[in-house]
Write a structure and sequence with these properties.
By secondary structure, chain A is mainly alpha-helical. Helices cover 65% and strands 6% of the residues of chain A. Chain A is built from eight helices and two strands, in the order βαααααααβα. The longest helix of chain A is centred in the first third of the chain and has 29 residues. Chain A is elongated, with a radius of gyration of 20 Å. The two termini of chain A are 16 Å apart. In chain B, strands 5, 8, 11, 12, 13, 15, 17, 18 and 19 form a nine-stranded mixed β-sheet that branches. Chain B has a two-stranded antiparallel sheet with strand order 1-2. Chain B is globular. The chains are: A mainly alpha, B alpha+beta.
């Protein structure tokens, strides 16, 4: 086993991640304002910004889904119980004793099992939920003549807000966990440079050196 | 030298830019002074050159050519002051309803019927005059500007010699009318024709409606984008289209949500709605903001955003009328106080012995309510609950009925007399200089109410008191240009204009519901968990190191 700096986050993935960060923060900020929780932006411009950011995020998601499917990157999110308990125990107990993070990143599996499960849930439930309720909200014009449109609208709007709270909760925990295991900077840096320290078997190292030399930093 | 090459081009461009707006203005100007479409010059008609001794004589001359005109007018609400609401079955119209202003027409005819589109309606009970020559053609069709109606002569104009101190229905000093000049000038009604009655309802300029005042004779574009010379320069009948002398637009049976929209080719002749010109999707549909604004039209009337305030342009409207204080005298004589100062410096009465206390308002923020177009009146035969504010006219509609929209209203606050035994609104006899019962000459409520109740033949216990009332007037005129429309946050805010309208969800107004409580609880739990986890890590590490 050798520790090498391996590119685990290709350019698109980093672009996707950081644009998503920006758009989600814009959406949370404008959304909270539209919901009436702050008045830092005038309502009309906030609606426009919220809508444009949402549409941009939808486009980004479409590209990201395509990217995940065509590159096989989706495999990183396949749930596994292997090591899940260890990671959970680390966050719940061992971390307080100054233990090291039990998960060793592999270049073909860059998330720890708990992390992968969380991201999968985010992608399968929360994001589609905010997407579906948001689009229903946005296209009210097309179904306003349905019976009970007002009631449906109220339910859609409330679900949208509820999911937004859950996504905000994810953001908080996600950012906090960047401080656990390694330092905050060490956690953020790979998502900027693309390279992270990964244990490689001699076979993996040989493969990468031969077939994907650009993923290895000298 | 090279730099100078562009100078001539710049000069030419500047000149063009300067000239183009002028050209556009010239075109607009031509539209403003559009000539009548009439194929007849009434000043050439012999029959209109003969001397006229009265209004009805002019009408008789008109009818020699316009054979059906009087019959048509006599079928219209302008004439009958009678309207059976098809939805509620209530018999309404000025001849029947009690309002929050002067109260009632019956027993006060020659004063109230001074604004009738006819001559000589002396008694409500008898109905309007039957003869065709009693129709007043000139009040609507005089274009000379010299025709007027006296304020107490049941619709007749001032003719020579005019009594000293006589006034017209607009409150101006009466001058003798030249009936020949008026008859030879006739044309389609302009705003001066409609305005002399409709701008002065309730006894003075803008007293009643709030959105119909003398300002509309020549409004600034910011006050009324439709009627301003710098706007569309429309007159009343451009929107209030006619069919056989019957006009579109009703306050008794309002077209509160027009889903038909434009009526091309030609024009619709049945409504005066915004949609009949602007369509049912009036905002630019290809823009994001336009689409969002169009989202609103199923629930929000155009007027709600586009008439930010009423009584704009410098003429105030009466907002409170308390009859209960009327009748106070100083040294046995009636008096008045003029403590409201209008923006133009004019003082308006705040107390009159004849009428009680008043409040006025300019640039008034409307009262908003769900409205399906139906209005039910508290007519004299209905029992009221005097412990509560009595709605003189109840607005029908709700958030969930699928047809109502949020409309702006002038909410007139009144305090008016009712029968304290029978719990019914009473009529009162206010005008009658020759009677010993009229309130405005005798200042005695008992006599005034008794006389009016006898006049209309309704039961009256003889005991009266005063009750607080509200009367609702849909606001639909004084549409501001689009840059003057309300901003989103006028309503989409916790303390916005629709803060009191319940029963529906509105973004920006309604945070703090169960979903927020759940969401915030989760969020706070996460924050607390993270903070606790972090703190524990720090504490434990220190402990471990120590």
């Amino acid at each position: 086993m050798t520790e090498r700096l391996v590119k685990v986050y290709p350019a698109f993935e980093r672009f996707w991640h950081w644009s998503q960060v920006l758009l989600i923060l814009v959406l949370l900020f404008t959304g909270l304002g539209l919901h009436g929780l702050h008045g830092l932006l005038p309502f009309g411009p906030a609606v426009m910004l919220h809508t444009v950011a949402a549409l941009a995020l939808v486009v980004l998601w479409i590209f990201a889904i395509f990217w995940h499917l065509t590159t096989g990157t989706w495999r990183h999110y396949v749930p596994t119980t292997q090591g899940l308990f260890k990671v959970a125990r680390f966050y719940a107990f061992d971390i307080f004793k100054g233990a090291h993070h039990p998960y060793r990143k592999a270049y073909w599996r860059k998330h720890n099992p708990l992390q992968a499960l969380t991201y999968l849930a985010l992608k399968l439930f929360l994001f589609p939920a905010i997407w579906v309720t948001g689009i229903a909200y946005l296209t009210y014009n097309f179904w306003e003549h349905q019976p009970n449109a007002s009631l449906i609208f109220e339910i859609v709007a409330n679900l949208h807000v509820l999911v937004a709270y859950l996504i905000a909760t994810f953001v908080i925990v996600h950012v906090y966990l960047l401080t656990a295991g390694h330092s905050f900077v060490e956690h953020v840096k790979p998502m900027i440079t693309g390279f992270d320290t990964v244990d490689l078997t001699p076979e993996e190292e040989a493969y990468l050196a031969a077939d994907e030399p650009r993923r290895l930093k000298r | 030298m090279r730099r100078n090459r562009y100078v001539p081009a710049i000069v030419v461009a500047a000149l063009l830019l300067g000239v183009l707006p002028r050209l556009a203005q010239a075109e607009d100007g031509a539209a403003v002074t559009a000539k009548s479409n009439s194929t007849a010059d009434h000043s050439t008609f012999e029959i209109l050159k003969k001397p006229f001794a009265s209004g009805p004589e002019v009408t008789a001359a008109c009818l020699t050519c316009h054979t059906e005109a009087a019959k048509q007018v006599q079928n219209s609400i302008h004439w009958t002051w009678d309207y059976i609401n098809p939805a509620t079955g209530q018999e309404l119209g000025k001849a029947h309803v009690i309002n929050a202003f002067c109260g009632n027409v019956a027993s006060n005819e020659p004063r109230c019927t001074s604004c009738h589109a006819g001559y000589g309606w002396e008694s409500m009970a008898d109905g309007p005059p039957k003869e065709q020559s009693a129709v007043d053609c000139l009040v609507c069709h005089d274009r000379s500007g010299n025709y007027a109606k006296l304020d107490n002569a049941a619709g007749h104009p001032p003719l020579s010699p005019v009594r000293d101190g006589a006034k017209t229905i607009t409150g101006a000093a009466a001058k003798p009318v030249d009936l020949n000049l008026a008859a030879q000038s006739v044309g389609m009604p302009a705003r001066e024709n409609c305005g002399q009655c409709h701008f002065y309802g309730g006894g003075g300029d803008n007293v009643k409606h709030g959105d119909l005042s003398s300002v509309l004779y020549d409004p600034d574009r910011s006050v009324d984008v439709h009627m301003s010379k710098d706007g569309a320069n429309l007159v009343c009948s451009d929107c209030h289209v006619t069919n056989h002398h019957e006009w579109a637009g009703s306050r008794y049976n309002v077209a509160a949500h027009d889903t038909a929209g434009l009526g091309r080719p030609g024009e619709r002749r049945d409504v005066a709605t915004c949609e009949s010109c602007h369509g049912t999707e009036p905002h630019e549909a290809v823009s994001l903001i336009g689409m969002k604004l169009n989202d609103h039209i199923d629930k929000v009337a155009c007027q709600t955003c586009h008439i930010p305030e009423f009584a704009r342009g410098g003429v105030a409207t009466k907002t409170v009328w308390d009859w209960s204080t009327a009748g106070k005298l100083k040294d046995g004589k009636p008096y008045g106080e003029d403590d409201f100062v209008q923006s133009d410096g004019k003082h308006l009465h705040t107390y009159l012995s004849t009428k009680g206390d008043f409040e006025w308002g300019e640039d008034v923020v409307p009262f908003y309510a769900w409205f399906d177009g139906q209005v039910e009146y508290t007519t004299g035969d209905q029992t009221i609950d005097p412990t509560e504010v009595v709605d003189i006219n109840r607005i029908s509609g709700s958030a969930g009925d699928g047809k109502s929209r949020i409309w702006p209203f002038k909410r007139m606050e009144g305090r008016q007399a009712y029968d304290s035994q029978l719990n019914k609104l009473v009529y009162n006899h206010v005008y009658g200089p020759e009677t010993d019962t009229a309130f405005w000459s005798n200042f005695d409520w008992s006599k005034s109410i008794q006389a009016a109740m006898d006049y209309v033949g309704e039961p009256y216990s003889g005991e009266f008191d005063f009750v607080d009332t509200h009367m609702y007037w849909p606001i639909t005129h004084m549409v501001a240009p689009k840059e003057g429309a309300l901003d989103c946050e006028a309503c989409h805010a916790k303390d916005g204009r629709l803060a009191d309208l319940a029963g529906f969800y509105m973004p920006g107004r309604d945070p703090g519901g169960p979903v927020d409580k759940i969401g915030l609880a989760i969020l706070i739990a996460a924050l607390a968990g993270v903070a606790g986890h972090g703190l524990l890590r720090i504490v434990m590490r220190r402990g471990g190191q120590a």
